[in-house]
């Protein structure tokens, strides 16, 4: 699912997706990332882009070789889907927001196995690198009853910081000087 929100200063495109599981064949995984790439290519380059969903990817907390694409606050150990996700993020300048902020594991882990023993961080939110510093927090919302083995991932705080461009004070000063009686 893709939605584009138009704002006064910037537009935001949000893509919600569901990636194949780690056990899926390579063809299905490649097809998913090709489709995601096509959607991003059809999005204006200046938009804030957020990709989120069940990526079925464990990225872990070791950012060696991926320091631009992730932080050190992930959980677990990277799996094959995690490598694919990080390669995608590195190629398209995205950052995995769930790995940037220190939280207790209870606010990081998004999936509980049916046996109740295994817990993983496989649902992610990525933001394009241009807007990395606008993302202030990402965490799991526990307790929402959505009849799923996944917990909701919530964007807690996104603040848009805009730079001030030059003003036209010169034109105002000239108008004031040229007014009669000024």
Structure description:
The chain is built from three helices and nine strands; from the N terminus they run E-E-H-E-H-E-E-E-E-E-E-H. The strands form three sheets. A five-stranded mixed sheet has the order 1-2-3-7-4, covered by helices on one side. It has one domain: Endonuclease/exonuclease/phosphatase (Deoxyribonuclease I, Chain A, 4-Layer Sandwich), CATH 3.60.10.10. It has 182 residues and is an alpha+beta fold. The radius of gyration is 21 Å and the shape is globular. It starts with a strand and ends with a helix.
Strand content: 25-35%
Assembly status = single chain
What is the approximate shape?
globular
The arrangement of helices and strands along the chain is EEHEHEEEEEEH
CATH architecture: 4-Layer Sandwich
The value of Rg in angstroms is 21 Å
| Strand segment count | 9
Residue runs with pLDDT of under 50 for 5 or more positions = 171-182
CATH topology: Deoxyribonuclease I, Chain A
| First-to-last CA distance | 59 Å
Mean pLDDT comes to 78
Number of domains: 1
Sheet with most strands: strand arrangement: 1-2-3-7-4
Please count the helical segments: 3
- Structural class, by secondary structure, is alpha+beta
CATH superfamily: Endonuclease/exonuclease/phosphatase
Main sheet summary: 5 strands, mixed
């Amino acid at each position: 699912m893709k939605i584009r929100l138009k704002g006064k200063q910037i537009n935001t495109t949000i893509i919600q997706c569901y990636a194949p599981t780690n056990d899926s064949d390579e063809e299905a995984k490649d097809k998913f990332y090709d489709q995601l790439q096509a959607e991003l290519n059809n999005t204006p380059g200046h938009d804030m882009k957020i990709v989120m969903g069940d990526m079925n990817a464990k990225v872990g907390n070791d950012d060696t070789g991926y320091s631009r694409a992730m932080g050190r606050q992930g959980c677990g150990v990277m799996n094959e889907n995690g490598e694919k996700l990080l390669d995608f993020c590195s190629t398209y300048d995205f950052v995995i927001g769930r790995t940037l902020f220190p939280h207790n594991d209870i606010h990081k882990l998004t999936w509980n196995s049916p046996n109740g023993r295994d817990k993983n961080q496989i649902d992610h939110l990525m933001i394009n690198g241009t807007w990395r510093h606008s993302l202030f927090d990402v965490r799991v919302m526990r307790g929402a009853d959505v009849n799923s083995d996944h917990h909701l991932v919530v964007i807690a705080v996104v603040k848009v910081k805009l730079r001030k461009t030059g003003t036209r004070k010169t034109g105002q000063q000239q108008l004031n000087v040229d007014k009669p009686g000024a």
